[in-house]
């Protein structure tokens, strides 16, 4: 009985051992509570970070894995990828790019004043002093996804609007394709842009042999010093859109090969081209080869084969050029044979040779892609310089005599001075002395005489 009374006595004191055990349990419980509080605080922080991340476009696609572990809801699904930023650069005009798309407007203005002095006994009112807007050109070019590109240009010249470079292109590494209206790789001088030439007018044979853009499919491969170009072409778009354009079934095959090694500081250029054209129905209307006196402002021609019927044209040319420092040289020869109907086939010949020198230190003639390119002045006006000054001397020969055809011959001696105060702007002053033999225009009783030409051109292109 005494033992039972002792067990139910609430006033009985704890032993020292029981008190120590109770304190240990309280300390362990306090530690567990602190650990739980830390975990709750950490989970709250992670949840707040997840909410902020889901609300941010830059990180909407990323959700911390420990949010799911903490039992939180998954973040909002990411939005669609943002479009690439629009980038704008300046290359004579604004060039706008967004991702694989780009666009650059293009334009060109050329204003000519030319005086042609021929013997007084030639009664031709097209000679003397005249001015003209040589070219006004507008268009644009750019790139598209899939390595595609485009170019579209129209030109006001000869009081009419013509379609010039207008094509769709595709480029992959060294290989490229163009479909549309374009040059057919006829010669170095023809392929050089008319605002990149060293003198005002191209070599006489390029105009006399009717070099022009035509509608067709062309391919190009360039690697290292080698460039191979070729294509299949119909006729120029103006002939194809004429009233009898649906009857125009002419076509041609053209090719060009260039080897352009660089030896030390000297850039070399060796080229050859071959061309064959079946005139088909257009040959019945006849072909004609003629040339102006180093001036487009006059329609007078001192050289002219007259019109004759032909079934085909075959021509080929050789090219050479070199650039070293301020010096450059260039030369070409070109032969054209017309497959005449009802007569022997005549072969006509043209060529030129030139040497040029920049009077301003640091300037050089640019070369790119198998042709001479635009040359920006080293020290332009407005930046402490005087722009670039280039002097060029050229000899230009054309022979339109062969078989029974007497179209005449020309020996041309040309001096040109080009001032480029800034890039894209040029002023071109030229003098030409042309010696004619067998000219179709007679000076009295003579058809051999000289003609002098002085020309000035102001041009802006971008």
Automatic annotation (TrEMBL):
<protein>
    <submittedName>
        <fullName>Phosphate-selective porin OprO/OprP</fullName>
    </submittedName>
</protein>
<feature type="region of interest" description="Disordered">
    <location>
        <begin position="54"/>
        <end position="81"/>
    </location>
</feature>
<dbReference type="InterPro" id="IPR023614">
    <property type="entry name" value="Porin_dom_sf"/>
</dbReference>
<dbReference type="Pfam" id="PF07396">
    <property type="entry name" value="Porin_O_P"/>
</dbReference>
<dbReference type="InterPro" id="IPR010870">
    <property type="entry name" value="Porin_O/P"/>
</dbReference>
<feature type="coiled-coil region">
    <location>
        <begin position="19"/>
        <end position="53"/>
    </location>
</feature>
<keyword id="KW-0175">Coiled coil</keyword>
């Amino acid at each position: 009985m005494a033992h039972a009374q002792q067990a139910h006595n609430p006033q009985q004191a704890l032993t020292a051992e029981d008190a120590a055990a109770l304190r240990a349990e309280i300390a362990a419980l306090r530690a567990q509570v602190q650990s739980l509080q830390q975990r709750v605080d950490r989970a709250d922080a992670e949840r707040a970070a997840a909410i902020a991340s889901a609300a941010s476009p830059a990180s909407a696609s990323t959700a911390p894995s420990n949010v799911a572990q903490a039992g939180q809801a998954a973040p909002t699904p990411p939005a669609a990828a943002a479009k690439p930023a629009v980038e704008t650069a300046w290359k004579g005009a604004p060039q706008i790019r967004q991702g694989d798309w780009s666009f650059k407007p293009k334009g060109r203005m050329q204003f000519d004043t030319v005086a042609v002095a021929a013997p007084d006994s030639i009664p031709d009112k097209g000679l003397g002093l005249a001015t003209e807007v040589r070219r006004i050109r507008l268009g644009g070019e750019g790139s598209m996804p899939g390595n595609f590109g485009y170019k579209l240009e129209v030109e006001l010249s000869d009081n009419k609007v013509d379609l010039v470079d207008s094509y769709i292109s595709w480029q992959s590494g060294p290989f490229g394709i163009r479909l549309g209206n374009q040059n057919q790789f006829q010669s170095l001088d023809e392929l050089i842009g008319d605002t990149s030439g060293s003198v005002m007018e191209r070599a006489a044979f390029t105009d006399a042999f009717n070099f022009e853009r035509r509608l067709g499919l062309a391919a190009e491969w360039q690697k290292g010093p080698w460039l191979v170009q070729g294509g299949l072409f119909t006729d120029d778009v103006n002939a194809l859109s004429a009233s009898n354009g649906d009857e125009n079934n002419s076509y041609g095959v053209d090719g060009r090969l260039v080897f352009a090694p660089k030896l030390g500081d000297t850039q070399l250029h060796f080229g050859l081209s071959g061309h064959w054209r079946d005139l088909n129905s257009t040959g019945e209307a006849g072909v004609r080869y003629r040339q102006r006196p180093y001036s487009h402002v006059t329609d007078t021609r001192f050289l002219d084969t007259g019109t004759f019927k032909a079934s085909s044209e075959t021509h080929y040319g050789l090219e050479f050029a070199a650039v070293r420092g301020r010096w450059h040289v260039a030369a070409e020869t070109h032969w054209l044979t017309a497959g005449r109907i009802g007569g022997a086939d005549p072969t006509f010949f043209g060529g030129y040779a030139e040497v040029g020198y920049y009077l301003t230190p640091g300037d050089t003639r640019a070369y790119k892609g198998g042709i001479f390119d635009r040359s920006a002045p080293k020290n332009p006006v407005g930046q402490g310089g005087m722009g670039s000054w280039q002097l060029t001397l050229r000899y230009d020969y054309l022979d339109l005599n062969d078989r029974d055809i007497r179209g005449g011959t020309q020996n041309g001696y040309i001096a040109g001075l080009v001032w480029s105060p800034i890039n894209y702007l040029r002023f071109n002053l030229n003098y030409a002395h042309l010696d004619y033999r067998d000219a179709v225009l007679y000076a009295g009783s003579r058809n051999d005489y000289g003609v002098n030409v002085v020309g000035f051109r102001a041009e802006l292109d971008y």
